[in-house]
Design a protein that fits this description.
Length: 94
């Protein structure tokens, strides 16, 4: 994955997700750099918070097209890598 592909996928994600559901601000990414085991930290490049299954699918497809890894968060298990997009949760608001 290159910086260019990451920039492209973040641009695409900004069209898929509403502003508050795509976190790219470095300071705001801090809480997502680890789970309860804070000994292992790695800040993601951005965090996607899809509101429903359709947004989740679109996020994963966008990342796959640009070969950007997706790390999901669930059950307090998080594996992070630099340059990854973290899809933190699905909020189904139907």
């Amino acid at each position: 994955m290159t910086t260019t592909s990451l920039a492209k996928v973040v641009g695409r994600l900004s069209k898929i997700l509403s502003g508050e559901n795509l976190i790219t601000d470095t300071a705001a990414l801090g809480p997502f750099e680890s789970d309860a085991l804070t000994m292992y930290k790695c800040r993601p490049s951005c965090v996607a918070l899809p509101r429903d299954v359709d947004e989740l699918i679109a996020v994963v497809k966008a990342c796959a097209e640009h070969k950007v890894p997706v790390v999901t968060r669930g059950a307090s298990r998080v594996v992070l890598r630099p340059g990854s997009v973290k899809s933190s949760s699905v909020h189904d608001r139907r």
